[in-house]
């Protein structure tokens, strides 16, 4: 037997049964002499092209709505499962009339744009590139196309960042590029902007560039609220490793970037002094005041019990606090310090599962984190299958409720089953990630003798603060790391290991 170089890229088709079986469609697993590290066709470029191709397929899937579904029938966009907020909000949020987000009031009850500032800027830039001539239908079509082109660039950035975060595992980027949920939900809303910025931030952290990490997390938080949650796992991990300086740089960068984007829109001035602009605050007040909505555990409970759950905000907040406390204990008691991607996935999944809304496009928040936290095709595809079922279920349910007496679609009981699968799929992936944290020998990344390839300054850093028996167990983990290098570093890249 000959040993494999420790800097050699990991080949999933020789480690993962599902990846090996899937590779038969393109000629089978890569041979031992296959080289992908030089030349134009390297793994990162292949992953980027695959992501663009899947995104394009997702655009094709929206074709029935592009032709007529968004305009000539409320239910046809549901029966074809091709709904998108983008064309509807072009006119509905004043972009078609040239209104300026956060500054100009909208007609109707909404009053102001209910999106964070950076997402609002993204929407506004797309409206600048949309011609003003022609019918409103044609302009909405072009607006969707412009946004789709900009979001495609975000998808490519996302895939490249995931492929580069784990230096020896570039092919894990294919989990993102080939994710069915990415193709189906990428153009429902503008979430991909925040997802791509978050992925850049995680790439910066893996390169030990703490301040740049904070900058991109701050920008991502200016586009969507959830990325700020990543500062929580970084706090716990830096606490355990004693890396306070790096954490301070990340927090400083995040605060600075968020303020630079938000302050010009947030602050208004009149004769009485400075005030918080009402238009800027709309996103935060809307998130607080909106009722429970599709996909959430709270909607399922409400529908089954008949209780409107008017205190869902309180319940969700309490569960989130308790869950974060449990994740902190998990990180401090684990035999080895959890990988950054593992805790990042768990805290974002916790936020989504306890939230009042679990929209279909929220799966985009988790796709890159899942690919980095648990790069195992079987588990990833089980979760994706649940998400695809829910994607179809919610549109069929809306078709059923919007068809009057025809009731063509999925009745309430069927939608509730889709919600259960949706929630259980996410919980399943959380469970296997927690198992990997508690049993690091089950972690497919650490089987190669790696510690935390996405951890930057945390990678192989010694622990300075642990709880319970973690300090004793960590010595056993070091022995395991050496054994893993022998076990997995030998030419026996078998999927049966």
From TrEMBL:
Keywords: Cell membrane, Membrane, Transferase, Transmembrane, Transmembrane helix. The keyword Transport does not apply. The keyword Secreted does not apply. The chain crosses the membrane at residues 40-60, 142-163, 175-205, 211-239, 314-334, 340-359, 380-400, 420-438. It is found in: Cell membrane. InterPro entries: GT87, UCP010361. It comes from the Bacteria. It holds the Pfam family GT87. Coiled coil: none annotated. It is a multi-pass membrane protein. Its main location: membrane. Belongs to the glycosyltransferase 87 family. This is DUF2029 domain-containing protein.
């Amino acid at each position: 037997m000959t040993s494999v170089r420790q800097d050699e890229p990991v080949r999933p088709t020789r480690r993962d049964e599902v990846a090996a079986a899937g590779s038969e469609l393109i000629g089978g697993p890569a041979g031992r002499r296959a080289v992908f590290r030089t030349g134009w066709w390297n793994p990162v470029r292949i992953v980027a092209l695959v992501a663009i191709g899947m995104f394009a397929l997702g655009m094709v899937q929206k074709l029935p709505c592009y032709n007529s579904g968004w305009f000539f029938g409320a239910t046809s966009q549901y029966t074809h499962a091709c709904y998108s907020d983008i064309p509807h909000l072009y006119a509905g949020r004043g972009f078609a009339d040239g209104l300026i987000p956060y500054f100009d009031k909208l007609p109707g009850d909404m009053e102001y744009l209910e999106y964070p500032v950076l997402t609002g800027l993204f929407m506004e830039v797309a409206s600048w590139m949309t011609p003003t001539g022609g019918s409103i239908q044609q302009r909405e079509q072009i607006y969707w196309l412009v946004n789709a082109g900009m979001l495609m660039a975000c998808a490519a950035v996302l895939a490249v960042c995931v492929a580069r975060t784990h230096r020896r595992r570039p092919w894990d980027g294919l989990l993102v590029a080939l994710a069915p949920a990415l193709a189906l939900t990428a153009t429902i809303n503008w979430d991909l902007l925040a997802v791509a910025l978050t992925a850049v931030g995680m790439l910066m952290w893996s390169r030990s560039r703490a301040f740049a990490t904070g900058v991109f997390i701050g920008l991502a938080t200016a586009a969507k609220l959830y990325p700020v949650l990543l500062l929580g796992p970084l706090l716990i991990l830096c606490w355990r490793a004693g890396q306070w300086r790096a954490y301070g740089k990340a927090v400083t960068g995040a605060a600075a970037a968020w303020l630079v984007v938000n302050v010009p829109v947030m602050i208004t001035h009149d004769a009485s002094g400075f005030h918080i602009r009402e238009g800027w605050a709309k996103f935060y007040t809307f998130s607080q005041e909106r009722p429970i909505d599709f996909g959430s555990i709270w909607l399922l409970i409400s529908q089954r019990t008949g209780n409107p759950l008017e205190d869902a905000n309180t319940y969700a907040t309490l569960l989130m606090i308790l869950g974060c406390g449990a994740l902190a204990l998990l990180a401090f008691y684990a035999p080895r310090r959890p990988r950054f991607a593992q805790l990042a996935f768990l805290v974002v999944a916790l936020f989504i599962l306890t939230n009042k809304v679990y929209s279909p496009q929220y799966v985009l928040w988790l796709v890159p984190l899942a690919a980095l936290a648990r790069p195992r095709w079987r588990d990833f595809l089980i979760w994706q299958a649940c998400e695809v079922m829910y994607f179809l279920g919610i549109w069929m349910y809306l078709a059923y409720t919007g068809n009057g007496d025809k009731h063509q679609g999925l009745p309430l009981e069927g939608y509730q089953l889709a919600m259960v699968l949706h929630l259980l799929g996410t919980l399943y992936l959380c469970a296997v990630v927690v198992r990997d944290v508690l049993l690091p020998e089950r972690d497919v990344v650490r089987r190669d003798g790696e510690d935390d390839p996405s951890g930057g300054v945390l990678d192989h850093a010694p622990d300075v603060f642990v709880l319970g028996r973690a300090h004793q167990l960590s010595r056993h983990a070091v022995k395991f790391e050496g054994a893993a290098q022998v076990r997995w570093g030998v030419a026996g890249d078998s999927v049966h290991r």
